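Q: Given only this backbone (226 positions), what sequence would you predict?
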């Protein structure tokens, strides 16, 4: 059985998604199950089993994760009820949507087999560039993530409330700009200039409407007034 060296953890879902509503203990156990499902110890394709169709017992999960019975059973029920895992009659656990969210590892594996056993920062950069050239959609998602990160930092998050009240809507406007050929840096710089003028957060909807006609010398009369 093969083993992964990493799994993906989606920042926005972790920080702002429904998982945020769970107690820290449940969130930690969820991350541990993701690691187990890809580690090669009990599976590497989103399933946690000791053999085909047979999972660990609850007592074994307790020992592996260093939990009390109460902690494990509570987290297991919460993750089952929230649709993150399935559990069959033999206690085999399967991560819902594993292929959808964790398939990136398989797509990058061929690049990593080209590298020397000891990875270097330079080689990691080369791998990222190769991945991006083959997957434009990943470039777009990276662009959205980069803009969100910079916007939150600029607005003082997490010391201040999250300025992005509707990530889905803001993502759609950023996506529109990226698909029109604007870079993440251009979008963020335009947004930042507009925020400086207005003095408060500005929706990406206004940036999307105005960005094509903006010049380095911004006319402050063009901006919607607060």
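A: Predicted residues:
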């Amino acid at each position: 059985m093969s083993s992964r060296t990493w799994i993906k953890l989606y920042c926005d879902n972790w920080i702002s998604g429904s998982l945020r509503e769970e107690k820290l203990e449940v969130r930690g156990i969820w991350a541990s199950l993701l690691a187990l499902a890809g580690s090669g110890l009990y599976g590497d394709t989103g399933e946690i089993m000791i053999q085909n169709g047979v999972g660990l017992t609850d007592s074994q999960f307790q020992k592996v994760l260093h939990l009390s019975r109460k902690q494990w059973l509570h987290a297991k029920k919460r993750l089952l009820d929230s649709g993150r895992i399935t559990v069959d009659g033999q206690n085999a656990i399967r991560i819902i949507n594993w292929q959808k969210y964790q398939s990136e590892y398989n797509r990058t594996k061929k690049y990593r087999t080209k590298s020397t056993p000891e990875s270097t920062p330079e080689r990691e950069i080369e791998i990222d560039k190769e991945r991006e050239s083959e997957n434009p959609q990943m470039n777009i998602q990276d662009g959205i993530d980069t803009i969100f990160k910079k916007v939150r930092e600029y607005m003082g998050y997490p010391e201040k409330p999250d300025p992005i009240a509707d990530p889905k809507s803001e993502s759609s406007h950023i996506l529109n700009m990226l698909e029109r050929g604007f870079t993440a840096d251009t979008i963020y710089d335009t947004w930042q200039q507009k925020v400086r003028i207005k003095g408060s957060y500005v929706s990406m909807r206004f940036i999307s409407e105005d960005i094509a006609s903006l010049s380095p010398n911004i006319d402050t009369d063009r901006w919607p007034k607060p």
